Amino acid sequence: MLNSFKQLSKTKKASIIILVVFLLVAIFSKFLMPYSHEDISHSRLLEPSKKHLLGTDEIGHDIFSLLIYGFRITIFTAIISGFFTTLIGTSLAYIAAYYGRSVKMIISEIANLFVVVPEIVMIMFFSSLARPKLIYTIMAIVFFSWPKVYKIALFKIMNYMEKNKVKYTLLIKGNWFDVLKKLLPDILPLMSTFFVLQCNRAVMYESSLSFFGIGDPLKKTWGKLIRAALDYEDLYYDNTFLWYLIPPVLCLILFVISLTFLSSENGED
Amino acid sequence: MKSLIKCFMYMTLIIVLSFALPRLIPGSPLFAMAEDISSVGNMTKDALKAFEKYYSPELPLLEQFIKYLRNLFNLDFGYSFYYKMSVIQLIKERVGWTFLLSFSSIVLSSITGIFLGIKSGLKGKESKLLVSVFMSIQAIPTFLLAAIFQITIAYKSKLLPATGAYTVGARFGQSGYILDVIEHMILPLFVLVISQIPPIYLFAKNSTANVKKEQFVKMASYLNINKRDIYFKYILKNITPELLGRLNIQFILAITGSIFVEAVFSYPGLGQLLRSAISYRDYPLLQGILLICCTYGIIVNFIFELIALRNIKRC
What CATH architecture is A10-263? Predict the structure, then answer.
């Protein structure tokens, strides 16, 4: 594990370190938050001080606590939707590749449709209709973003199916499970790349949705925090934006850029 | 012909989806309609009446669907609760601004993106910094990019107007109107172009680098064929089909990109409509925007498929 880490390029190493730190913050967010994210007992619009590292917002939340809580919710959303999108996309690709012909055609056409149609508008449409709950947002993201995984996965799996070991397995009448067992060493690394890529997409989708005010208002992701900051009217009159808007924006950007560099195939050096 | 059938199939699927899903998703107004009318929330009586007249939730599902189809064929998308106007009229008024923004951005971004991409694809390894910068920009959601530019350029340094497409009160035909519109367009357009260049650039760079490795290009350079000829006749010609495929996706992304940018800059296009439709849960308007965007995507795809077909025939 350590050896394979050393072989990675510098940018990838840096991305992994950042992501691990982010993940740790997300896991231990309960201990890092000085106040509860529901605590609105503080006086409003305080400037940063020792007591409130990033000040307080116009309702009386401690912004630092909200930011840390945002780690938890945002990363949780990303991982769950990334996982399910990858799983559904790759499984469908495997089914299509294994059965071929009409099964493949039907799934591929449906996938094509979602590539042609702007998926973020679809996601927005359906998650704004549903009850504002995080789980529905995640479901909308998964439902409309599997086709992208599917298309690439299908192409790769079709290539793997040509391999001799698969042909032998089919020759001795192996069923779909036997073939899958043979292919798994090829598919798993593929899936991990997809997973990182989809986590990235999920964060982008979620923050875009939050920007439009869609989703559970109680589950404060970074996107929601940014939205709240932008909604605050006097944001630009003094320096409030420095501790209200900039921290979640920085966290979000750092997170997505690290994911992007991690998932990029052409090592940049 | 085959692509026309495909087109038709996609459209049918979209219509079925847009009909079925709102009725299946828990919490949507149409789902709530079946249980309890009062749960829909702050709807006025008139709006409710228009809503019921358009959707007639009391009918059996099949008849509802037929009615829905008939309405769509007559281009009747219902009545917006919030704007108190018919949806199609609203969209007609606004869609021009969106097209203005997205088309001008796509022209600018594809020209610069393709040019830069081919250039660094030919050069090879020297463009590391540019690639990293572009990859980072690509990672940032468009609305965030827009918000950052709005803060720094419009609010903090007050160089350009921050919101709107024209100064309030200005009218078409007045002297200075066009200048005013252009001044308001610079910032949104700039953000859109910036957000669109990276994918085109990376794509053009990779495909150029791939073609450059091919045997026939190497052979051509051994034969001392003019470098310009190699670039234009050998490389550019070979990456054109791939680039067209990419531009197809880019056209679709342009519309969503401009929706986000418009929402940030309060530009009076579809994006702003979408934003108010979502915040007031204006269901018919939402549906209208969805259908327009999907139709746009399908038509763009169809056109590009036709172009691709013609290219294949010529070869």
Answer: Orthogonal Bundle (1.10)
Identity of the amino acid at B227: K
Q: Which residues contact B202 (CB under 8 A, 6 or more apart)?
A: B117, B131, B134, B135, B138
CB contact under 8 A, B144 and A226: yes
Nearest CB to B26; choose among A121, A130, A261: A130
* A226–B131 CB contact, under 8 Å: no
Q: Taking CB atoms and an 8 Å limit, are A116 and B252 in contact across chains?
A: yes
> Which of A118, A129, A260 is closest, CB to CB, to B252?
A118
- Contact between residue B231 and residue B241 where contact means Cβ atoms under 8 Å apart: no
Query: Over its length of 269 residues, how does chain A's per-residue pLDDT go in tens digits?
Result: 566 667 777 778 888 888 888 888 888 887 777 777 777 777 777 777 777 777 777 777 788 888 888 888 889 989 999 999 999 999 999 888 888 788 888 888 888 888 778 888 888 888 877 777 888 888 888 988 888 889 888 888 888 877 777 777 777 776 777 778 778 888 888 888 889 888 988 988 888 888 888 877 777 888 888 888 887 777 666 777 777 788 888 888 888 888 888 877 654 43
Domain-terminating residue out of B36, B52, B86: B86
Q: Domain range holding B215?
A: 91-314
Residues B225 and B125 in one domain: yes
Per-position DSSP letters for B186-253, written without gaps between them: HHHHHHHHHHHHHHHHHHHHHHHHHHHHSHHHHHHHHTT--HHHIIIIIIIHHHHHHHHHHHHHHHHH
Give the count of domains, chain B.
2
The count of CB pairs under 8 A between chains A and B is 124
Whole-model pTM: value is: 0.82
CB contact under 8 Å between A268 and B131, yes or no, is yes
